[in-house]
Amino acid sequence: MKFKSKLSIGLLFISFIPILSLFFLFAFEVHGWIGMIILLPGLIFLIDIFVNTHYLLTENVLIVRCGFFYKKAIDLGSIQKISKSNSIINAPALSFDRIEIKFNQNDTLIISPQNKNDFIKKITQQNSNILVDLTQNTKQ
Question: What is the pLDDT along the chain (140 residues), one digit of tens a residue?
Fold first, then answer.
């Protein structure tokens, strides 16, 4: 089952305003097309991240995808805990409404599924040993 990332308007503005401002600034310059061409790959990269960040839950694996370059597979049997997170570190999460997944011994991953409760329900159906604590706020 595929879960899209929840989208925060604030994070959208923080990400796009600087590059779009420069893009439109170059649009009114005489040789601005050079600057626009330079900024275009960055703009495409950002759009791809916002369009293609999702979490795919298969029978045995959680696959986290964020744009062209980020793909992580986590064995569902290795997941130990899911908890609420207020961390603002860079993560494959497009919202600040985040959850932290602890897996293996000391590995963590922060994500922000659009329907958090449904995501947790589906993942715990496949691994009933996962401890879920959404009252705790973890910070890194």
Answer: 999 999 988 888 888 888 888 877 887 777 777 877 888 888 899 999 999 999 999 999 999 999 989 999 999 999 999 999 988 888 898 898 999 999 998 999 999 999 999 999 999 999 999 999 988 655 55
Looking at the structure, give the CATH architecture of the domain made up of residues 2-138. Answer: Roll (2.30)
N residues, the chain: 140
User: Model pTM?
Assistant: 0.82
Residue pointed to by tokens 């496949």: 126
- As a whole number of angstroms, the distance between CA 110 and CA 101 comes to 6
